Amino acid sequence: MDRLTPIRLWPAFLSVFITLMLWFAVPNPSGVTPEAWHLLALFIGTIAAIIGKALPIGAIAIIAIMLVAMTGVTNPGKPSAALNDALSGFSNQLIWLIGLSIMLSQSLLKTGLGARIGYGFIALFGKRTLGIAWALTLAETLIAPVTPSNTARGGGIIHPVMRAIAESLGSQPGNSENGSTGRYLALVNYNINPISSAMFITATAPNPLIVSFLTKGTDGVLNMTWGMWAIAALLPAVVSLVLMPLIIWWLYPPAITRTPDAPQFARQKLESLGPLALAEKITLAVFALLLCLWAGIPALIMGSGWTVNPTSAALIGLSILLISGVLSWDDILKCRGAWDTVVWFAALVMMAEFLSKLGLVSWLAVSVGNTIDHLGVHWGVATLLLVLLYVYSHYFFASTTAHITAMFAAFFAAGLGLGAPPALLGLMLAFSSSLMMSLTHYGTGTAPIIFGSGYVTLAEWWKTGLVMSVVNLTVWGIVGAVWWHWLGYW
Q1: CB atoms inside a 10 Å sphere around CB 309
Q2: Would the pTM of this model clear 0.85, i.e. be above it?
């Protein structure tokens, strides 16, 4: 007899309790409609269930969609309209862009191209430990635009390469003599992930959600394209990626600094992979095509009539991989991460959009803005306070998606109300949404994988995360602000 899938009772009880208390025991504040307040109760209960992992996030999303439809909070007295509202998230193009991109990224794993890229950089730059660190950095950055699952990228593709290199150097977890080399590489392996996730809209799943918030928060004025995002992130990301291995070296230097055998080990791994297969060549060509389409190169060369919607471009790429046989339909059906992401994104985006439509986000923004406004500070100081509060509240979240969905729109609206330039504020909050992953060993899905390898203690991880958060925020706040001003974004 099949076993029942267990629900985690205490997190489930807590999320239900929070929802019911907000719905029935806490009156809606002045300026907030009952429908908006009730939707907020469902929303906070959903976030609590996600944080507590009462059920898998996709299952929680389905329950949330059902509750929105059955309670009719978005359209009281109109069950059919309420159901349409509850399902509206599935028509969002950005959600499908991420789902399709995750499907596309399966070709990196299936063909072995991801591992080949990683070992290729080690073979070129791996004579020193610092060179290995930068090789891992280059490898992850190269595949970031086409791997919207930062967990698959940092934990599934780069981490096995990192572990193989560490073990080839005799560095085992807990080894007092050489273990520090593995510790250094593991910390580098993880801290690439937040930076690479910030670099491209398609580098981590919540980024398209942020684009949606920025567009809606400015009534379409701040409409970030894939190319605009990538250009905005380029300079501060390069500075962060260059500094990060050096900062971690300063914090926790490796015992082994010269690694003359690492390039040979990497070449042996490449030899075992054999020559570049046809499937890998097709995958490379598809990803090159996607980068051209997402960056808008055809439109730049041929005119605006050649502009290709990013989601349409992803469909083109996936279709080529299916037609060529690089991926099969069974591969797509087995891509649980993609389907899971589409479902839970649809629920969270739908709830966030209707919270905005019902006026809750604007009310919350005014409340936060008034609190900071009473301090009588300049908009620059107010922006800094908002960003710091937004970033370091991530200590209370085990999901960047839950954090972004819960707080981004309100903090962006609050900053606008305090006079911050929309692009400057929006870009700082957008990029901080990825950079804050560095803080804890549970901050995003990549963290438990690398932390679980045993090279890094909890204290070492948290210390590195705090230091890197300060470094990254400083780089992106100063270098980024100057770069964006030079680009004419603000």
Answers
A1: 11
A2: no
Question: What one-letter code names the amino acid at 310?
Answer: P
d(CA 460, CA 482): 33
- To the nearest 10°, report the CA torsion of 181, 182, 185, 187: -110
226, 236, 144: which is closest to 192 by C-alpha? 144
Alpha carbons 242 and 221: distance in angstroms, whole number: 33
Single-letter amino acid, residue 322: L
Q: What is the DSSP string of 339-387?
A: HHHHHHHHHHHHHHHHHHHTTHHHHHHHHHHHHHHTTT--HHHHHHHHH
Tokens, residue 408: 């981004």
DSSP, collapsed to helix, strand or coil, labels residue 128 as strand
Least confident range of 53-57, 339-343, 372-376? 372-376
C-alpha to C-alpha distance for 10 and 14, rounded to whole angstroms: 6
> CA-to-CA distance for 215 and 42, rounded, in angstroms?
24
- Block residue for tokens 């005119």: 303
Q: How far is CA 189 from CA 86, 153, 182, 368, in A?
A: 39, 10, 10, 37
For residue 467, the surrounding DSSP H or E stretch is: helix 458-487
Tokens of 201: 């809209």
How many helices (H) and strands (E) the chain has is answered by 24, 0
Which H or E run includes 124? helix 113-125
For residue 146, how many other CB atoms are within 10 A of its CB?
Answer: 26
Separation between Cα atoms, residue 67 and residue 59, nearest integer Å: 13
- pLDDT value at 403 more than 70: yes
DSSP for 152-191, written as a single string: IIIIIIIHHHHHHHHHHTT--TT-TTTHHHHHHHHHHHHH
Phi-psi region of 140 (alpha: psi -120 to 50; beta: other; left: phi over 0): alpha
The residue with greater pLDDT, 365 or 308, is 308
Cα radius of gyration (the chain): 23
Question: Residue 471's CB: how many other CB atoms inside 10 A?
Answer: 20
- Taking alpha carbons only, the member of 165, 167, 160 closest to residue 131 is 165
Asked if 105 and 283 count as a contact pair (C-beta separation under 8 A), the reply is no
Provide the pLDDT for residue 451. Answer: 84
